């Protein structure tokens, strides 16, 4: 009789990892080819925003969807990444790539600062505290002109990306398309295929689904919740840095209602904690938002209606619909 393996073989923790990784990178390669075929620079611009948003939403999905922590300060990490990278490039002469890397460290610090008081709270109180942090930051930025944050006008003239001596301006949409795709794909892969499919991911899901049981089997709640904040902040700060150097301008608008609402809609439509639901939500919402530009006065209203309808008819989002169809097909 063969000896039974003690290896965890659930789909979440890594079974079929090779196959899923191959599918992921084939999709990335397909998107890379698509970038070369697209002739319209505006369409490339939309896809660049999609790739940046993929990092933000994947990070938020990690902490909210998988770890089950009601963190609503995600765009705070994005803002610190954008401002941190921009200020380092402008005032210290640091190259943009190094500035983005430094912004990740800044993000880790901010994530830790938000995590410490949040870990003393439970459930909806975490949501209230983190949302209060989100609301408090714009006035601070507006008063930060004395320290070089630009105040209401923000920071202008942020240095463009420099790759091996070649300056990539925002006009060069094709190069930016490929750069943002590469950086976005690496970040998303690290989140979903490395972190969440390993022991850390198991601990996150255990805390989310059965917190008492997780603690009973030795999962350190404080340690892993703190880690969730820091990891989410690091990747989101990287996205902020990429955004700053792509647009060459960053203002307090990044913490505005529209950005926050769009992020919420992406998660709601895509589905939290169900890869690739959140990523699908990014593509649907960013592209759909651009298609609704002609209805500017009603665009946010239509997005809100989309969320309400999704919650009512598809509570688990797009990913939940495909998962249920897959289970029916397998019967």
Largest sheet: 2 strands, antiparallel
Quaternary form: single chain
Provide the succession of SSEs.
HHHHHEEEHHHHEHHHH
Number of H/I helices: 13
* Residue runs with pLDDT of under 50 for 5 or more positions: 1-13, 326-330
Overall average pLDDT = 86
Strand order of the largest sheet: 1-4
From the alpha carbons, calculate the radius of gyration and give it in angstroms: 20 Å
**Which structural class do you get from the secondary structure elements?**
mainly alpha
Determine the strand fraction and express it as a percent band: under 5%
Q: Give the overall silhouette.
A: globular
Distance between the termini: 30 Å
Question: Helicity, in percent?
Answer: over 70%
Q: How many strand elements?
A: 4
Task: Please render the helix and strand layout as text.
Layout lengths: L16 H21 L3 H26 L7 H19 L3 H23 L5 H19 L12 E2 L4 E3 L2 E3 L4 H23 L3 H11 L1 H6 L4 H27 L1 E2 L6 H14 L6 H15 L7 H15 L3 H14 L1
Antiparallel strand pairs: 1-4, 2-3
Tell me briefly what this model is.
The protein has helices at residues 17-37, 41-66, 74-92, 96-118, 124-142, 173-195, 199-209, 211-216, 221-247, 257-270, 277-291, 299-313, 317-330, and strands spanning 155-156, 161-163, 166-168, 249-250.
Can you characterise this structure?
By secondary structure, the chain is mainly alpha-helical. It has 13 helices and four strands. The radius of gyration is 20 Å and the shape is globular. The protein has helices at residues 17-37, 41-66, 74-92, 96-118, 124-142, 173-195, 199-209, 211-216, 221-247, 257-270, 277-291, 299-313, 317-330; strands at residues 155-156, 161-163, 166-168, 249-250. Helix content is 70%, strand content 3%.
